Amino acid sequence: VPVVLLSAYVLVASHSATSMASIPAVLALVALLAMSKLLSRRYRRVIFLIGAGLLVVTAFVALNLGLMDFVLGLFGKDSTLTGRTYLWEQGWNTVQKSPILGVGYAAYWVQGFAEAERLWNEFYITTRTGFHFHNTYIEALVELGFVGATLVSLIMLRTLYGHVSAVIFKAWQADSVILFGVMVLLLIRSFVEVEILNPYIMGSFLMYFSFFKLARLPVTRRRRSPALEPADAAGGETDWPRYAGHPAGAGPS
Question: What is the pTM (predicted TM-score) of this model?
Answer without folding.
Answer: 0.78
